[in-house]
Fold this sequence. Notes:
alpha/beta; three-stranded antiparallel beta sheet
Amino acid sequence: MEHCPERVAVAVFVSFLMPAAGKPMVFVFEQLSQETRPEDRYMDCEFETNVAGDHQRPVETFRLGPQYLKQRLYQLSPAEDVNVTLAMAMVRPSQRFRDGMTMMNANVLTAERYGAVRRAGVVAEDDASFQRRMASLNPGTEGAVRTSHGDSRVS
């Protein structure tokens, strides 16, 4: 969106997990960290450091655990839901990007380019206050779709 805002008609963020223009990308993680107690923050997520390629720059990866998925991402879905089971089967390790210039630089997403793209968010009424706070940090975000149905799907 920052590089080619003219090519994006509207950006839709599920659960308002969206970065804010003029703030470093790590800001989203910092805000999320304020929502949870340290002992609950990562729950059963797995972290691993891989030094296979470059010992000077080890790569830290994480994998979301089943309890984290159930309690944080699919907390509104019925326990017997096939999509939750499928989501848990599809979890793969992801690289953590908390360090580095891209994550720490406040000028990565500018109001002139990223901020010029129309944005919308989807949030459930029962979602945590974090999503509502992130929406308030992104002025101009349109049409927050609120639903009280925990089994609604976004595809």
